[in-house]
Structures are given as structure tokens and as C-alpha cells.
Design a protein that fits this description.
three-stranded mixed sheet, homodimer
Chain lengths: 246, 246
């Protein structure tokens, strides 16, 4: 068998072929499999690095740029950052409006407000860890779309372990340090466990879904996950509080 | 001049030397500059990719692992994620306790609560974008420690552009859609502008500081920035509200 790459292949695919075989150069062929040139390892080193940079920029909600940081102007760098910041700023307003729906609950149990940042933070971080691992796995072809079932089942079991550990630590802290009483401690800890499971599943599922839809999985990262999980967190928290406290 | 790498060089440094010169192989010498072997481009492709993966895992608050995702067990993957999740969960409690300090302000101006998720989200995202660019720039040697002054001055000007744009959009939304009145709209929008400047400066400064202290800049990313910025956001918000509303 002859190993080759095609003129229309994505540069990430070409880089993965190089890594797989360790060759110094590969033939490039057109759609009729006619040789059109060769590509060498030194081109590929730059590609591997540029692809990682591009993924990172997407994951931090930036419009990717190939220009080096020091050579980019202030407005050019601002333009990379503004579109998604604006979208997420407006998106997060939805999260805020959930709070206003539960104003009466919050005014009865003022102590609940105190745990909102911790819950949103923990949910966002758990989902972020999961999506980062899957996005990177898909980019390096360590994980493929056929593994989706296996990945989600693994993430689910991980989420149970992580959820139980964090909920237990939180429960001890709520009871012994915050001293907020059994009912509130149970509400907050149950939210911790539940939101970790949900966040990890969202973080695992979205990159796979993006891949399936032929979008770049790197867009399903940190800021998007955080915004979604923030909303989920408040709904779970106020939902559980409505049941457990009233 | 002979280009070589040393046995004690970090693999990231070696990868950067390869990229710089595009050689197929480089001599490796010991501390007395005696030849101990050679290193070839195919080793380096793996290194470039592994380093990017490691940085990504650190940036998502995970303990880096070289094991492939599918070959790692559930408990192994949970163990990568738990330490930082626990630390940030406890760290975010501090943020929560800031809220309790301003309970009376919040009960007078209940509407303020509604904007907390949006403010924390926007601050976290802005800081995250900035830290991602600087961390990546340091890793690829596109940015060096000597550029610190230039980088921070650039980030400051970017933060003014981003801050003014987002604050303006937010002000229009507060007045026309949320209809929360001039005073609250001004308070929220001034917080947006101020927290973006602070978050971008924190996001730009911390990776440079880590590099200076010979730590991996990748630890100064998303989750840490988010936790710090969440606290800053609440202090700025309640501080401004105390001045502008009462």
C-alpha cells in the first residue's frame, strides 16, 4: 500500500498521517490520484502547532488568528475577542432571569444566594475538564466518533465518582464550617452532585455532537459550557430547594 | 555555529529549536558539550503534540496524564480531575461569602442579583481569552518574558476597547430591554467596563508571573482566572452599587 495525502485533505488529517507513520515526506495526490507534489515533515511541525493554537483560541471563545500576538494590532486583537464575548454576555442574561423567577424563594432563604458562585463555578469547571479531554482526543484522533458510546459511558461513571466526592466534602463543610443546618446542607450538596453529573455529560456530549455535525469540536469548550451549565445549575438548585426546603 | 540541544533541556525547548531551524535531526550533548546522541524530527512531532495536550489539560485544571483517554480507567480519569475541582470549590466559597456581606444592599435592590451571572461570566471570559493568548504565546516562544511590558500595555489598551464596547451594548440593553432605570443601568455597565479591564489585566499578568517564577504558565488559566475574577467582580459591583445607588 502507498501512503499518501490528498490535495483537499484538512491539514489536521495530514498531520495525523505523518504522526502515524513517522515518514519524512508524503506524496500529495489529486482527486484522480495523480501526484501533484510532496509535503515534508518541517511543514507539518508548523501545522501541528498552528492547529493546537487554533483549537486553543476557539476553546477560549476567540475568532482564531494566525497572526503572531506581538505583530497584531490592538483593534485586531480586540476584534478576535469581541464577537463571542458579546454573544455570551447576552446569553448569560438568560441565566440572570432565572434568578428573578425565584426571588421569593431567595428572599425566604437568603443563605441560598451565598452558594450560587460555588455551584456555578464547580459545574463549569467539571464540564470544562470533560469537554477539554474529548476535544483534544478528537483532534489527535485518540478518540473517534465511533467511540462516542464508550466515551459517554465512561464520562458518566467518572461523573458519579467526582460528584459523590465533591458533594461529600461540601456537605461536611456546610454542616461544620458554614453551619447552615441539615436541610440547606442537603440541598446544596445534592445540587453539587447532580450538577456535576449534568455538566460532565454536557461537556462530553457537545464536542462529539459538533464532530458529528462536521463542526470544529473546539467551539464546544469553556465559555459555551459555562454559560449552559450556569443556567442548568440555577434550575437544579432552585428546583431542589423548592422541593427540599418548602 | 553548530546547532545542538542539551541532555537536560526541557522537551518544549528542544521542539522549539527544531521548529526554528527545520532540521531532520539535531545532536544532543551533555553538560561538557560531548555528543551523547541525536534526536530526530519524528520524536519531536510527538513532543509538540504532547506538550500542547499537557498545556490544555493544565489549563482546564487537570493533573496532566500522558495515558490516552480510552486506555485510562474511570478512577484514573477521576483522579486527574478531583484535586483542582476540590480546591476551586473551596475557593469559590470565598466569593459566596462576599455576597453575604452585601445582603442588605441586595435586599434593597433585588434587581442587582439578576446581573451577577452575566457579570461573572463576562469577566471570566475576558480574562480567559487574555490568559489563553499569553500562555500559548509563551509556549510557542512567540512571546518572551522580555516582552512583558509591551504585552501588558497592549492588553490594557485592548481591555479599554473591549470594555467600552461591551459596557455600551449592556447599557442599551439595560435601558431598553431590561428597563431597570438609569441608576441601575449605569451601575451594571460601569461594572462591565471595570471588570473587563481588571480581568484582562489579571489574565495577562498571571501567566507572565508564572513564567518569571519558573512555573508552567498553563496553570494560570480558565478556572483559576474565573475564581479570582468572580471575587473581584462582586467587590467591584457591590462597591459601585454602594456609591451610585445609595
Amino acid at each position: 500500500d502507498i501512503i499518501y495525502v490528498e490535495t483537499h485533505d484538512d491539514q489536521e488529517t495530514v498531520a495525523n498521517t505523518f504522526k502515524k507513520y513517522g515518514f519524512m515526506a508524503l506524496p500529495v495526490v489529486d482527486r484522480e490520484h495523480r501526484l501533484t507534489g510532496i509535503i515534508t515533515f518541517d511543514d507539518i511541525m508548523t501545522v501541528i502547532e498552528d492547529e493546537a493554537t487554533e483549537d486553543l483560541q476557539r476553546m477560549a471563545a476567540m475568532v482564531p488568528s494566525e497572526e503572531s500576538y506581538l505583530n497584531s494590532g490592538v483593534f485586531q486583537l480586540a476584534k478576535m475577542r469581541l464577537p463571542w464575548l458579546l454573544i455570551f454576555m447576552l446569553g448569560a442574561s438568560v441565566t440572570g432571569s432565572i434568578i428573578t423567577k425565584f426571588e421569593s424563594l431567595l428572599s425566604t432563604y437568603v443563605v441560598l444566594t451565598m452558594f450560587i458562585p460555588m455551584l456555578m463555578n464547580t459545574g463549569g469547571n467539571s464540564g470544562n475538564q470533560s469537554s477539554t479531554l474529548i476535544i483534544r482526543g478528537l483532534a489527535t484522533e485518540d478518540v473517534s466518533l465511533e467511540d462516542a458510546g464508550k466515551v459517554l459511558w465512561k464520562e458518566f461513571r467518572i461523573s458519579l465518582v467526582v460528584g459523590i466526592v465533591l458533594a461529600t466534602v461540601n456537605f461536611a463543610k456546610n454542616m461544620l464550617i458554614d453551619r447552615v443546618g441539615l436541610q440547606v446542607s442537603l440541598t446544596v450538596s445534592a445540587t453539587v452532585a447532580l450538577i456535576i453529573v449534568l455538566a460532565i455529560m454536557v461537556g462530553g456530549l457537545l464536542p462529539l455532537l459538533a464532530k458529528k455535525l462536521k463542526l470544529d469540536p473546539a467551539i464546544m469548550a469553556g465559555p459555551l459550557i459555562t454559560t449552559l451549565v450556569d443556567g442548568l445549575t440555577l434550575m437544579v438548585y432552585f428546583g431542589l430547594a423548592s422541593v427540599l426546603l418548602i
